[in-house]
Here is the input.
Amino acid sequence: MVKKERKNSRAKQIGKFILTTIIYCAILMVLIYLYQYSGLTSVHFIYNEF
Here is the structure.
């Protein structure tokens, strides 16, 4: 019975690690998308007139 608890605990740790990795990747992708969407490297409208 002790071995099952260790195996289950190990499986929970692996599952938690994978889930955490997926969540952090999703957050990173959203931040990259928002950075590109904001257009920080593009010329602002006010400078088009000059």
Observations:
- The mean pLDDT is 79.
- The two ends are 77 Å apart (CA to CA).
